[in-house]
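Records of this kind hold a single protein each, on a pair of labelled lines. Below, a sample record shows both lines together.
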Amino acid sequence: MSHEDATHGPAPLGSVEPEPMHRAVDALAEALHQYVQTAVGVRAEFGAAEADEDPRVLALENRVGQLNAAVFDALHDSLGMHPDLTSSVWEPQEGEEPEDAHDAPEGAVPAEVFYLGFVVADPVPGASMTLDGVIELLDEAGTDVAQRLFDGGYEVAEWATSRGAAVDFGDDADEDDGFDDLSGTDDDGPTDQQEDR
């Protein structure tokens, strides 16, 4: 479907037939119930790690994924919206600070960590770039993103490029975390970055 059609336009749609969307949700709900029933049975026979890899469980997970996509398509095709209905969000316990909340400069709203990940395979033989060069490329991109955020009025407390795992920001307050604080930069914006290789 083109994003230039009326469904994606700025005008209200008026009357919309919801039945196709309900059918997609019902099919997903049925698959989720099947998953629960199957997972309970498999777990009764096998350990947790084996149950995770059981073909019956994997087949149903694939089915649920397909039906998640079908729900997205039904809503997108009918409403022109791009629903985010598959994110997992855990609410913190009372009095518990969220794991992704970090110190922010005075007067700023609480900070959160954002990630952009890449899975990069070895280049073909004879290529000019190696996997080691990916870090340098991402560093350049990170500098640009940090600058754009700074220019947009955001406080970029710290950022990092890592290989193999996401960076854990501020987990050990008793040790030097090795990250450069970008909140106190000059008018030209953030200029430093930290690599975790």
Remarks:
- Residues 40 and 105 are 48 Å apart (CA to CA).
- Confidence is low (pLDDT under 50) at residues 172-197.
- The beta strands are 101-102, 111-112, 160-162, 194-196.
- The chain has two domains: 6-79, 94-197.
